[in-house]
Automatic annotation (TrEMBL):
Coiled coil: none annotated. It is a multi-pass membrane protein. It is found in: Cell membrane. The chain crosses the membrane at residues 12-31, 37-58, 91-110, 117-135, 155-176, 209-226, 238-258, 265-284. It comes from the Bacteria. This is ABC transporter permease.
């Protein structure tokens, strides 16, 4: 019995996910259908890809609130550049654009010493403005049929989006747990001063986590534009809130130094299951936005209370 309690305590987010799935299967006869399960996985894939980078940022003691604007801008670049350079080069340009966003954020945080909260809010507005300018505020549809297939086709019944998410999860999990780079991210998030005194190049790692966060946001932006066959400056408006909520639900500490890619994915799945359940119950989207905000406040409050109890 003690072992069971220990497993439940260590894997509480996974247990909660399983209980949530069982509950929703009882409440709605449509929830556990094959089509809906695939739908939940596809919904999870975009935010799951972004969560891979966001987990690094939060473990490293920072936030990236510009991921939504990076997502929108990358999607637009991938579609707008295609007629001039071809689809694959256009997608590479979109990823380079995302990396440039990450370098700007990283430079301002690591070299200029500005709070990541302030920097990424500011750059979020800047890059959202650029996205609105290059699109004239209108949705831009892709004219390349191949581009739309990337976000909608399947292999053996598994959507490309889900396969790409799983590959990124495996790669980032390996980097975070089995490399010096990952260990140093934990050290920096746990105690910046100790990391600096240990000879860790904190500015390099701080910049790197913003580049990684932007890269995954750019990847998500391209895939989301492909899925919809359209890019828009408003795509990703709620992405930062949604991704951070999922990552924190998974147990990544907002004060840094604690977290994992696997648990972040469980958090994203919990978030997606709740969103899907609200859709099935006919809850309006603007109520859902409020519920997401409430979830984030409750989770942060619970984490703060747990730290208080431990102190």
């Amino acid at each position: 019995m003690t072992k069971v309690k220990k497993i439940i305590a260590e894997q509480k987010t996974l247990v909660f996910l399983l209980l949530l799935v069982i509950l929703m299967g009882i409440i709605s006869p449509f929830f556990l259908t094959g089509d809906n399960i695939v739908n939940v996985l596809v919904q999870s894939s975009i935010y799951g890809i972004m969560a891979c980078g966001m987990t690094f940022a939060i473990i490293g003691g920072d936030f990236d609130l510009s991921v939504g604007s990076t997502m929108a801008l990358s999607g637009l670049v991938a579609i707008l550049c295609e007629p001039y350079v071809g689809q694959v080069p256009a997608m590479l340009l979109a990823l380079l654009t995302a990396v440039a966003v990450g370098l700007v954020n990283g430079f301002l945080v690591a070299k200029c010493g500005i709070s990541s909260f302030i920097v990424t809010i500011g750059t979020s507005y800047i890059f959202k403005g650029i996205a609105l300018k290059i699109s004239s505020g209108d949705p831009i549809a892709s004219s390349n049929p191949w581009f739309g297939r990337l976000g909608n086709d399947k292999i053996l019944g598994i959507p490309y989006l889900v396969i790409i998410m799983v590959l990124l999860v495996l790669i980032t999990h390996y980097v975070l747990t089995a490399t010096r780079f990952g260990r140093n991210i934990y050290t920096i998030g746990g105690n910046m001063e100790v990391a600096h005194n240990s000879g860790i190049r904190t500015a390099f790692y701080k910049t790197s986590i913003f580049v990684l966060s932007a890269f995954t946001a750019g990847t998500a932006g391209i895939l989301n534009a492909s899925k919809l066959n359209t890019a828009s400056a408003v795509q990703g408006d709620n992405a930062a809130l949604s991704v951070i909520t999922g990552v924190v639900i998974g147990g990544t500490s907002l004060i840094g130094g604690v977290g994992s890619i696997g648990k972040s994915m469980i958090g994203i799945l919990i978030f997606s299951v709740i969103t899907n359940a609200l859709d099935l119950m006919g809850v309006f989207s603007y109520y859902q936005t409020g519920i997401r905000g409430l979830m984030l406040i409750v989770i942060i409050g619970m984490e703060a209370y747990a730290r208080y109890r431990e102190s």
